[in-house]
Amino acid sequence: MFLSPYAKRSKDTAGRLKDEPPCSMRTDFQRDRDRIIYSKAFLRLKNKTQVFFAPDGDHYMSRLTHTLDVNQIARSLARCLSLNEDLAEAIALGHDLGHTPFGHVGERVLDRLCPLGFRHSEQSLRVVDKLEKDGKGLNLTIEVRDGILNHPKDGKPATLEGAAVSLADRIAYINHDIDDAVRAGFLKEEDLPKDAIRVFGRDTSERINNAIRDIVSVSEGQPYVRMSDEKAQALDALRAFMFEHVYERANKLIQESAERMLGELYAYFSERPEELPAVYRNLLEEDGKDRIVCDYLSSMTDKYAIGVFKRLFVPREGSV
Predict the structure, then answer these.
(1) With the C-alpha atoms ordered 165, 168, 174, 179, is the resulting torsion angle positive or negative?
(2) What is the mean pLDDT of the chain?
(3) Is this model's pTM higher than 0.90 or not?
(4) All domains of the chain in start order, with CATH
């Protein structure tokens, strides 16, 4: 396959944190993709909230379906721009591995509870570097690690593939969160900002397609991946609208419960670190109690966090 001169070629990778022999069948970025897909953290994404917690319906986004959406958009961008599709795919699949239970509410709660702070992009890197494979980590390439860490809007990815994933993330969550918000009755299609809809289109598929077309038109043959000013401003308008009318409202519905559960669990395991699972106990001396308790809580799915909370704090029938 012909690659753009600005693409990151697998043979030019900066390597891994620990050297290891190459694979005879797969490039380094393909190996990273496979390691992420078969990781425990990736499997847990299916039971982590995207926006709506425990929705009544089968078609709401989870953190896993969001990740798959980001992957598809990032691969489309990479293919159209002749970038390294394997690198874009590995970054996309790994970008949210460190996300908390209860969506961004959980992230905010842990950031407040932990003296060291908490950011899901940094935690995603910690997952692949240290927590997976019983504390050994996945030993991913420098380029995939960089893309995972720098996927938020304020990040500065070192590769164009990383920049493609960052844009794909925003395109995916804004558009599919609109679908979920309409499905949940939080808003109606006609409530969306008219100028942004005029620029992108009213249908989700049309908006995503127009976003990809715009990025390709602006970025083809260039040493950057970006949107036109018009589309970027319209996407920002949609994002601001969603924060005001959907995200803050949805967050309020679970804020009190998430704060109570995570707060109680954080205090409990901080006082009793010996009750942490072995993989976390083994890192206590090296990384400290605050970070390790955060590691454990952020790894939990919504259901698991609720189950642990009930086991520890909700009296069972017949108990004294």
Answers:
(1) negative
(2) 92
(3) yes
(4) 26-253 (1.10.3210.10)
